[in-house]
Amino acid sequence: MRQFVIFLVFLVFQGLIGQRTLKGVVFVDENANGVLDGEETRLSRVLVSNGKDIVATDNQGNYSINTINDNPIFIVKPSGYISRLDADNKTKFYREEGDNSKSFNFPLYKNKEPKDFTIALLGDLQVDVMDDVHHVGKLVTEELARNKPDFIVPLGDLSFDNHDIFNPLSKILGLIGAPIFYVIGNHDLNFGEASLEKRDRSYEEIFGPSYYAFEYGQQLFVVLNNNFPLKERTYEGRIDINQLEFIKNLVDVKSKEYSSIKLFMHIPLEETVNKEALLSILAPFSEVFFATGHTHTQYHNYHPREGRSEVHELIAGAVCGAWWQGSHDIRGVPFALMYDGTPKGYWLMDVGAESYTLNYKVSGSGKDHQMNIWLPEKNEWDTDLNFLNEPFIYANVFAADTRTEVSISFGNDQWVPMEKHEGIAPELIRFNALQELGRYEGQKISHTPKATQNSKHLWRVKIPDDLASGTYLIQVKAENEKLNLNAFANRVLWID
């Protein structure tokens, strides 16, 4: 009996190892010295979390919370304030890893946050070598620095398993000059760790917690880590138990203040094995939006909910396109079309008090570049590509969903609907053909895999048999009121 009691005590002791009570104050650092001085304002009702439990600061800004092994302690940034930004514009809203002090204060700074604001959503950046970091600088940093968003959310797969590249990537994005809230992807994981809590060890050293929440401009945002490591460097989309508890505790508090919630994670909901458990927790919100990445294609999903409006999910493609593969353009950047024929780019999300809109921006192109039109062209010099000349016109509308209406005019002001088409984008078929013909031999490039994936935003129409010989300035328009999509493009069609 005595040995059994000793064993129980040992188990309890083991469970308590690494668990302490952390205390501190959340305050307004009015003199910006990072230290709580006597007269500085203390903030009440600010949420503090250990990645599972959530507590709120009292009237004097005090909090007390138990720590969890290998879990950072962080605050839920309140609207109108922001944590210290480091030199790379990462928000330091957490206690640094390895800090074992028994007390920790969180300084905050007043931050002007309008009710209408813009978020830049960056799908998979997937940098592996410094060449890729240079590409990000040309395609993202240089553009967004000219039209600065209010904050930036990279949607995971920051690296291509090379965690040494985290720091250079952080620096190139930091030059934009806007706060950055990072998301972790499956290629950012530490596989083979002894515990689930250490899966994000390398990521945390540079970017901080791999899941958290924050408020901005009277809106609630949540960043999730649904990359669940399995054996031998495999993974699945799953929200772990501690994280589900964190979300539940957050919803219990914040659903009384907010009717909507916006979430960012890497793997899409349809590939997350316990998505129903997650959506069930989010049921109190009348509007739920997700932005994800992972697929290197882009599309919209709508998840039905009983008695509530459907959940809108944007799968936001990839800044790197198809992993920086293929021939390079004049600036040395790979063409790397996404696997649905979408050119590389990023999304801008305009958030208002009652609604939001999403706009896709092709890197290096004007904001009006919202579709590619493909039509037959008879070549006299490069005849190898004439095999592509089938009697159809295609429109690849980058930001469209399946409910978008696409129509075409042959220059006579009469609009004919185009049919939604499940097929491979013609641009990719052409690119693969050129590669197979050896047109890119001699270049030091990564070759693009053969296109096999259907685009989810491709339309086509058969060219009318009764069109007279001549030239036609065809026009294509795509409209979707819910998405605030009103795209237009034209091309010249030759009929022999």
Automatic annotation (TrEMBL):
* Domain of life assignment: Bacteria
Q: Where is the Calcineurin-like phosphoesterase C-terminal domain?
A: 313-480
Q: Which GO MF terms does the UniProt record name? A: hydrolase activity
Which Pfam families does the entry mention?
A: Metallophos, MetallophosC, MetallophosN
InterPro entries xrefs: Calcineurin-like_PHP, Metallo-depent_PP-like, Metallophos_C, Metallophos_N, STPP_CPPED1
Q: Which PANTHER family match?
A: BLL3016 PROTEIN (PTHR43143:SF6), METALLOPHOSPHOESTERASE, CALCINEURIN SUPERFAMILY (PTHR43143)
Identify the residues that the record assigns to the Calcineurin-like phosphoesterase N-terminal domain, covering every copy: 38-106
The identity of this protein, by name, is 3',5'-cyclic AMP phosphodiesterase CpdA
- Where is the Calcineurin-like phosphoesterase domain positioned along the sequence? 118-297
